[in-house]
Amino acid sequence: MIGILGGAGLAAAGVMLQGILKNPLASPYTLGIGSGAGFGAAIAITTGIGAIGGSFAIAGNAFLFALIPAVVIYLLVHYKDATPETMILAGIAMVYVFEAGVTLIQYFARPEDVEQIVFWTVGDLGRATGTQTVLVLIVLVVCLPLLYKMSWSLNAMLAGDQTAASLGVDVERKRIQIMGLASIITTVVISFTGSIAFVGLVAPHIGRIAVGTDHRYLLPGSCILGAVLVLGSDIVARTVLAPIIIPVGVITSLLGGPLFLYLVLKRRKSYW
């Protein structure tokens, strides 16, 4: 269940972020959200210090630090009128900062803590509990319908901000709303599963080939593809070297990287 819900959520976040940024390389991790969560989790694992206590200490820290890139990008948009290109560059800069922080923590951490950090940063479905799965389900039930309601506005924005504004779309407000909802979905999912790479990047591209660029169809289609991608990767991770279980993020990266390269080379026309 956490694989299905997590894959659907990451794919939904990816397709909407690619839409508002008009960039086929945009994803929750391109904007630094995944790296921020990894840094927060590493702090909790090595120091035992978390935003909340108990069994949610690591997830709480991951959620808190994953919000930092989203807040930074929001401030850039709100106060500096940042362009989509600037937002992508800011996200990549934060990726490097957080990954450097994780590397520094691993350098000084105990071997058992380093092992736990590595498992968390590559993604692992086996540690999610029933309560965490229900929380992810609640977030998706609330956020996905809101994103779907903005599908038409996003279609208009793809034609250009001026065109969308002439059709009555408040471009800046919609962009912030979509980014906020996508960030919430991403932070909640990866707070419990770790950083599962490539799902939010690859699933939308497969969806565009299958159903086109209309977000009224692309959003639900990408959710289904993301769920299938994570679930299939988890099955492979549990069986290919059984009884050894490989972290699901390793499989999604091994499958997603070559698949994404194939899609890029095969697709000759514009993404939008």
TrEMBL record:
Biological-process GO terms, alphabetical: siderophore-iron import into cell
Location(s) in or outside the cell: Cell membrane
Signal peptide residue numbers: none
Keyword entries, A-Z: Cell membrane, Membrane, Transmembrane, Transmembrane helix, Transport
Transmembrane segments: 29-52, 58-77, 89-109, 129-148, 181-206, 218-237, 244-265
Family matches, as InterPro entries: ABC_BtuC-like (IPR037294), ABC_transptr_permease_BtuC (IPR000522)
Pfam family, one: FecCD
Family per similarity comment: Belongs to the binding-protein-dependent transport system permease family. FecCD subfamily.
Protein name, entry field: Iron(III) ABC transporter permease
Source organism (scientific name): Natrialba chahannaoensis JCM 10990
